[in-house]
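Sample intake — IS630 family transposase
Collected from: Nocardia yunnanensis
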Amino acid sequence: MFVRAVTPEEGRRLAQIARRSKVPIRMRRAVVVMASAQHQPVGFIAKLMQVSESYVRQVIHDFNEKGFDALDPKWSGGRPAKTDQATRDRICQIARCCPRDLGWPFSTWSLSKLAEALRINKIAELSRETVRQILKTGGVSWQATKTWKASNDPDFQAKMARVLDLYDHPPVDGRVICVDEFGPLNLQPRSGRGWFAARRPRRLRATYRRTQGVRHMFGALDLRTGQLYYRIRDRKRWTEFLAFLKSLRARWPGQKLYLICDNYSVHKRAEVRAWCVDNAVELVFLPTYSSWLNRIECEFAALRYFALNGTDHRSHDEQDDAIGTYVRWRNQHAGPVRDFAVGSKIRRPDYLTNVA
């Protein structure tokens, strides 16, 4: 049994399907047809393709009858689903609930426990894999819980609007600077991630005594240029903070500075406020519990990730040098900072003040 006569154009099309098709079934059937067109016997083709002779005969017969349509797989509907859409929605709703609220003695669902609860309550009798697929289709995924401190500032909207306006429309008469403290910088092995040989992670020592004290870092982010400036000091009192502000003032003489900072008591010290008034520096305070509005927090996260995580510095000088090296490299690649929280829910007019 052989396939009908194949034209040169059909042969080229079959060869293209056999080489480039991303559907394995279509590719295999095209190879069977090509081999039969070269007068290869059914037994040889079956042995070559590691399929049965009846399969080869069926492919040849279908191609003779239907042409290239016979190469396309005809997928059946599959096994009927055990659950309807209402049941699947109910399963997703149960998964989002705390098991204790439903009378179970644990606080987190596993796939096995969820499948058992569905079976006991006669909702559905499903395997763990089926439950996982239902949850995935329903947009329910396994995630870590996160903490959030909602702001209780009665002037939340006004303060946030002021900060966002400075981000979106920097004043032409000065610079917008984000200021904050980073630390404490203690000496300890810091866990981190990196590329290592399989099952051969880097090992860090464990420490129980740290006798060299801590240091603190004052940081300032210039939104116009994206440059990050810092000072590392042993203390973070108002005197150290004021000295840092004076260094910023000397860096941009003749320009008004708009300093965005949190409500740390040092920032509101009377001596600091008086100096700012006399030196064309405006302190723009964030709403309480809203440090996420300070753009410099992103830079501190990157500093921790790239300069400190995975390290084990034995002295403060060594650690300070690592921070300084990273900041210098970062400033060489910096650019203007724009587009803060574009599309975020905090931009909506109906954003609630005390709801995350």
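Post-analysis note: The longest helix spans residues 316-332.
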